[in-house]
């Protein structure tokens, strides 16, 4: 599709098709003795279920250039019984950010969790949209810290970075790394406004870290898909890693974080860390492996 007109027309066609796909019996609606000349729900029924006017539904289905709000889109998605994929498509067509389809905290997709292990010797971990650490391999534990020693509730990258003393000096450019981390968190927080657990995390960090309060007030917003981080490992010394963030198609709320050395000296440091990690247990770490 090209241009706003095509998107508007596609939105109109999509809404019409989904309305025609539904029958009153699907929603336990009364038939009121009126015959139906066309299949599916009437526009009046969709309007009532979605909490909008009939005229608004008509204009949407006629492609008359409306840009519905997220609240209206949620109502339409609910009225039309859209699946997660259909709802995301509706939001995209309307030019609105679709709500994240997230897995419950602590739920790990088995294949992705196993991939974390398979990527050894590259340090790797799996996060959810709240930055909770769901799985990690032994190289990541040897590089950062043994996440298995941390209570489940605190096993969160941002909580550890801002509150746990073990990572206070881990980032050589701490200001930059923490500021980017908060910018990423703010984007996730806005995209998941209804997530009480994520809101609680923000509130807890505000209570426990003045540094977090200062950086959160900057209102930076940035999703960090790749970049570099200069680190200071307590045993091997300084090194720099490049990171890549991958989102599994089947679990878009998850983030697979992979570290690679930025230069030969850093590669030598990672090799030494990997040799240390090899002396430990080979089992995959994480909340669940599926």
TrEMBL record:
Domain of life: Bacteria
SMART domains assigned: HTH_XRE
Pfam family, any one: MLTR_LBD
Chain ranges of the HTH cro/C1-type domain: 40-87
MF terms in GO: DNA binding
Protein's name according to its UniProt entry: Transcriptional regulator with XRE-family HTH domain
Organism for this UniProt entry: Streptosporangium saharense
């Amino acid at each position: 599709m090209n241009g706003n007109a095509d998107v508007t027309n596609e939105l109109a066609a999509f809404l019409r098709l989904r309305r025609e796909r539904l029958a009153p019996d699907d929603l336990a609606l009364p038939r009121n003795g009126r015959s139906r000349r066309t299949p599916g729900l009437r526009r009046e029924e969709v309007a009532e279920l979605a909490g909008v006017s009939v005229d608004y539904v008509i204009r949407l289905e006629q492609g008359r250039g409306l840009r519905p709000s997220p609240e209206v889109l949620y109502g339409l998605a609910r009225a039309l019984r859209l699946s997660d994929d259909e709802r995301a498509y509706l939001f995209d067509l309307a030019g609105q950010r679709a709500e994240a389809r997230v897995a419950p905290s602590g739920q790990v997709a088995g294949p992705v969790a196993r991939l974390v292990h398979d990527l050894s010797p590259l340090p790797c971990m799996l996060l959810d949209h709240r930055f909770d650490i769901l799985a990690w391999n032994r190289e990541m534990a040897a590089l950062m810290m043994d996440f298995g020693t941390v209570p489940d509730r605190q096993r969160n990258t941002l909580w550890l970075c801002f509150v746990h003393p073990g990572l206070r000096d881990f980032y050589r450019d701490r200001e930059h790394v923490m500021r980017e981390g908060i910018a990423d968190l703010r984007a996730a927080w806005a995209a998941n406004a209804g997530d009480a657990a994520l809101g609680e995390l923000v509130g807890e960090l505000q209570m426990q870290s003045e540094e977090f309060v200062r950086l959160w007030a900057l209102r930076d917003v940035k999703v960090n898909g790749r970049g570099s981080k200069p680190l200071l490992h307590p045993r091997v010394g300084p090194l720099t890693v490049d990171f890549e963030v991958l989102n599994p198609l089947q679990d878009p709320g998850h983030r697979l974080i992979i570290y690679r050395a930025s230069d030969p000296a850093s590669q030598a440091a990672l090799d030494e860390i990997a040799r240390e990690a090899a002396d430990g247990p080979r089992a995959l770490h994480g909340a669940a492996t599926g």
